[in-house]
Amino acid sequence: MSNEPVFVGLDCSTHGAKAIAWSLQGEPKAQASSSFPLHNPHAGFWEQDPRDWLEASQRVLSQIARELGPRVAAIAITHQRETIVGVDDAGSPVRPGIVWMDERSRDDVQHLRQVVGADSFHAITGKPLSLTPSISKILWVRRSEPDFFQRIERWLDVHAWLVRHFTGQDVTAVGSADPMGLIDISLGQWDDGLLAVAGLDQRSVPRLVPSGHIVGKLTNQQASVMGFPFPIPIVATAGDGQVAALGAGIRDLRTAYMNLGTAIVAGVVSRTAWKDLAFRTMVGAESGTYLLESDLKGGTFCIDWLSHKLLNGRVGVPQLEQNAASIRPGSEGLMWVPYLATAMNPYWDDNASGLVVGLRGDHGPAHIFRAILEGIAFEQRLQLEGIERVSHERIEIVRVLGGGAQSDLWCQILADVLNRPVVRTKQPETTSLGAAMLAAITLSALPSLSEAIHEMSKEDKAFEPGTSKDLYARLYSEVYSHLYPSVRTSMSNLTKILRNP
């Protein structure tokens, strides 16, 4: 029906903002996207201008307003995680935002190890101590840019930044702030001890609300700028990883989701906040749940590296994939370890970097491409097995989503390597969908999360393990699982020597 309400999931991710208006049947009725730059001013430094997040979000919402404005019942915000910005008392950014993949704060991680302790940090936050949580980035600004640090009135995640500009409210969701590494995960509150270590207090951070909470409405000014006929309710959700799990219909330990994006984020949903080095424990998008999450920073980031950095764009990804499909499983002896942006679980090694093993003169770009797909699949097996070990539940099926999930070749490789069915979600944009589902429940358009999943989250093509599964099992157990541990000490020495020649 033309007057049926729609619910907009706004996803402000690493490379741009995307808004999709969803029906209550889980069908996209309008969508818009707008990219913004990712700056790399120095080796290991990754930054963005927060004003780009806002302007891109306004652009995509303006397009939705032009197409479906009167039908929009709510806007739900999800976002890239661990990315932060410090603002002054007028709400203006004091310096560029620091992005989740940033590596500048190695010394600050060591400081946290000394003053807090890795075990204590893990117990409080559910996150093993590494470069990823935002707390070390805040410490870097405090140590390296003290004048900027003194001018910062509030530290905001991407969700808090957008909510402040959309509604005028200084608030964020627990699931949005949780990845910062400043939340006591068992209480769902800012931890005063960790705030103090970072030189902050409760006045330095936004107020917390649960996922699925209406944080306000678009101000009249913002509604006018975007072209909505009236102020629209804004619903808080959580970070993109937690919300993507919800959009994929994941609510238990036996079904995993896997987002094949710039980073590969996968996991299962638990009612228990288990903590182990095999994963990181995140506050779930559904109240009362936790996401046992694996995170590989080198996902399609590795493919981008091959296409843009190594090949200078001369060979496109579709051509690489077509050529790689004719190469036999095992990439003719080439193996890839995808740590181009350090290693999170299970090693939590900020000195890690990528490995190419078995390289010979007869290998070409297509071999490297296939080896990347296989290497990421091997890594996902390593990570999912770690989750199974702790939860004591076998993951029976994996639902894949994101841009990489559109590759039949990659999905089949995953099914063969993981030796379990891999099912593509009907809608690749499950992050936006999960946010919209929460908005629909919050506004009582659907009675429960179970009903929202039933109505809005659908499956598409399934890939069963094939004849290559036995070969991949040997390659995994006899080669891949030992590769990184065997060179870890040398890799650490290499990093230390280059940093301190």
Q: How would you characterize this protein structure?
A:
The structure is a single chain. The protein is of the alpha+beta class. The chain folds into 2 domains: 6-238, Nucleotidyltransferase, domain 5 (2-Layer Sandwich), CATH 3.30.420.40; 250-430 and 443-501, Nucleotidyltransferase, domain 5 (2-Layer Sandwich). It contains 17 helices and 23 strands. The chain has a 7-stranded mixed β-sheet, sandwiched between helices. Helix 14 crosses helix 17 (469-499). The mean pLDDT is 95.
Keywords:
501 residues, alpha+beta, Nucleotidyltransferase, domain 5, 7-stranded mixed beta sheet, 6-stranded mixed beta sheet, 17 helices, 21% strand
Write the layout of secondary structure elements.
Layout (H helix, E strand, L loop, with lengths): L5 E7 L3 E7 L5 E8 L11 E2 L1 H19 L3 E8 L4 E4 L9 E2 L7 H10 L2 H8 L9 H10 L1 H6 L2 E4 H10 L3 E3 H4 L5 E2 L4 E2 L1 H6 L9 E3 L3 E5 L2 H7 L6 E4 L3 H8 L7 E6 L3 E7 L9 E4 L6 E7 L3 H11 L6 H9 L9 E3 L17 E3 L7 H27 L5 E5 L6 H11 L3 E4 L4 H13 L6 H8 L2 E5 L5 H31 L2
Parallel strand pairs: 1-5, 5-14, 9-12, 15-21, 21-22
Antiparallel strand pairs: 1-2, 2-3, 4-7, 6-8, 10-11, 13-14, 15-16, 16-18, 17-18, 19-20, 22-23
The largest β sheet comes out as:
7 strands, mixed
Provide the residue-averaged pLDDT. Answer: 95
The CATH class of the largest domain turns out to be Alpha Beta
The CATH homologous superfamily of the largest domain is called ATPase, nucleotide binding domain
Which strands sit side by side, in order, in the main sheet? 17-18-16-15-21-22-23
How many E-type strands?
A: 23
Q: From the 3D coordinates, which CATH architecture of the largest domain would you assign?
A: 2-Layer Sandwich
What is the name of the CATH topology of the largest domain? Nucleotidyltransferase, domain 5
Count of spatially separate domains: 2
Percent helix among the residues? Answer: 25-40%
Shape: globular
Radius of gyration: 22 Å
